[in-house]
Design brief:
The protein is of the alpha/beta class and 270 residues long. It has one domain (2-262): 3-Layer(aba) Sandwich (Aminopeptidase). It is 30% helix and 15% strand. It has seven helices and eight strands. The protein has helices at 37-40, 49-52, 54-58, 113-142, 180-191, 208-213, 243-262, and strands spanning 2-3, 7-10, 16-19, 62-66, 145-153, 168-171, 198-200, 220-228. Strands 1-2-4-3-5-8-6-7 form an eight-stranded mixed beta sheet, sandwiched between helices. Helix 5 (180-191) links the parallel strand 6 and strand 7. Helix 5 (180-191) packs antiparallel against helix 7 (243-262). The protein is globular and about 55 Å long.
Length: 270
């Protein structure tokens, strides 16, 4: 285990890296007085994914996870702060609103450009340096590297999207972030089951991490999984994991990760 003040990295021996960029819950003590009481509850955390994906490390995957909340800085947003999904509501690199649309900061306390750049250097860059270095290590060792970017979200968030989100949302940047046969193999696992609704490259096609690091022509294949909270936990505070639901979705997650672990690019071409 490689420990850093801002993240933890477990190095595995397979070609797969699992990134969980939104599981952090810490907010630095010096910043806490500037946030609203609601924000300090960090509701938009990708709760319990470290538990759901623990099996991946046991199967040889590397696992990268931050310590700090996405409310400090969003590791899945581009450093230049361009919107990920133009034309709809988005949260920024240093979010000023929760997914509910409510302000995260007390009046006059939102970070300015200089502070955003400071947070970029202190929290964002170390995570991405570790992510890039681990992908390079895996590529050097195996001749290719695989990236699974794991996320979760409330199933209904009117400020972000209409209606109810499908249970499982696989994103491949519309097919550009991984080889087509890998996308097809993962989609086949999703479509073969009926317990959960699913979509490939729907509302969530993959954030910055998937889009930036997914370079199939260079031997790096990236996908994003956005799961609804409702598949494994309570959707309201205190956001407790539901063991019955978690046991129901876990085998499907394992199937998907096993597809990643057994896929070989020298058999399947881009």
């Amino acid at each position: 285990m490689h420990d850093n003040p801002t993240y933890t990295l477990h190095r595995g021996d397979s070609p797969l890296l699992v990134s969980l960029p939104h599981i952090g819950t810490d907010i630095p003590a010096a910043l806490r007085p500037r946030y609203t009481e609601q924000a300090l509850a960090v509701d938009d955390t990708d709760w319990h994914l470290h538990t759901l994906y623990a099996f991946a490390a046991q199967r040889g995957a590397s696992l990268l996870a931050p310590r700090y909340s996405r409310y400090v800085i969003d590791l899945n947003r581009p450093p230049e702060n361009a919107p990920m999904y133009p034309g709809v509501n988005n949260t920024e690199l240093c979010p000023t609103h929760a997914f509910s649309g409510q302000p995260l900061y007390r009046p006059g306390q939102t970070p300015g450009d200089a502070e955003v750049q400071q947070r970029l250097a202190q929290y964002w860059q170390p995570y991405h340096a570790a992510l890039a270095a681990e992908l390079q290590r895996l590529h050097t060792q195996h001749g290719y590297a695989l990236l699974w970017d794991g996320h979760s979200i409330q199933s209904t968030l009117p400020w972000l999207f209409d209606g109810t989100l499908p249970d499982l949302n696989l994103g491949t940047a519309s097919g550009s972030s991984c080889a087509a046969p890998l996308r097809t193999a993962l989609a086949a696992v999703l479509s073969a089951q009926t317990a959960f609704s699913q979509v490939v490259d729907g509302r969530f096609k993959g954030g910055y991490i998937t889009r930036h690091y997914g370079r199939p022509e260079q031997g790096v294949h990236a996908v994003q999984m956005e799961m609804c909270f409702s598949t494994y936990m309570q959707e309201t505070p205190p956001f407790q994991i539901d063991p019955v639901r978690a046991r129901r979705v876990q085998p499907l997650l394992e199937q998907l990760i096993d597809v990643m672990l057994t896929w070989r690019p020298h058999v399947h071409t881009v």
